[in-house]
Amino acid sequence: VQLVESGGGSVQAGDSLRLSCAYSGRAFGSYSFSWFRQAPGKEREFVAGVNYDGTSTDYSDSVKGRFTTSRDSAGHTVSLQMNNLKPEDTARYYCAAALGYFSDYVPTERGAFGSWGQGTQVTVSS
User: Fold this and answer.
1) Number of Cα atoms under 13 Å in the Cβ half of residue 10
2) In sequence order, what are the residues at sequence separation of 6 or more whose Cβ sits closer than 8 angstroms to the Cβ of residue 11?
3) Please, what is the end-to-end C-alpha distance for the chain in angstroms?
4) Secondary structure of 77-113 in HEC code, one letter for each residue
5) What are the tens digits of pLDDT across the range 88-115?
6) Distance between CA atoms of 65 and 62, rounded to whole angstroms?
7) Residue 33's beta-bridge partner residues?
């Protein structure tokens, strides 16, 4: 499994960005996908996730109502639409894949994810 994130950049507060995660490997439909972020000096934290078949999503309280994640089974991609960005959203964003959660449950703990991308930087200035 290989995950490659793209779409990061430097924006102003209130702007939008769309991150993409390209998946390479077998059995895309067997994985749940989540986005995590890590700011300098802070732990990596869960941001948003989608379950194995796209019927269920989960979000951290800090991004709920502003961020939306989805998956495209045809293109083997996962997206994170980020609206109304705030300076506190500044971080490196990572895509992660978790195998074997065949339900509406969306994993949020780092230990559930066996595959990670290299991340993409998002910087939001005020």
Assistant:
1) 2
2) 17, 85, 122, 123, 124, 125
3) 37
4) EEEEEECCCCHHHCEEEEEEEEECCCCCCCCCCHHHC
5) 999 999 999 999 889 999 999 999 999 9
6) 9
7) 50, 97
Q: Taking the mean position of all CA atoms in its chain, how far away is CA 1? A: 16
pLDDT tens digits, 46-76:
999 999 999 999 999 999 999 999 999 998 9
Which token pair is 75? 């293109």
CB 46 within 8 A of CB 63: no
Helices and strands in the chain: count of H runs, count of E runs: 0, 11
What is the residue-averaged pLDDT of the chain?
97
**The dihedral sign for the CA sequence 62, 2, 109, 70:** positive
Q: Is the CB of residue 80 less than 8 Å from the CB of residue 69?
A: yes
pLDDT of residue 75: 87
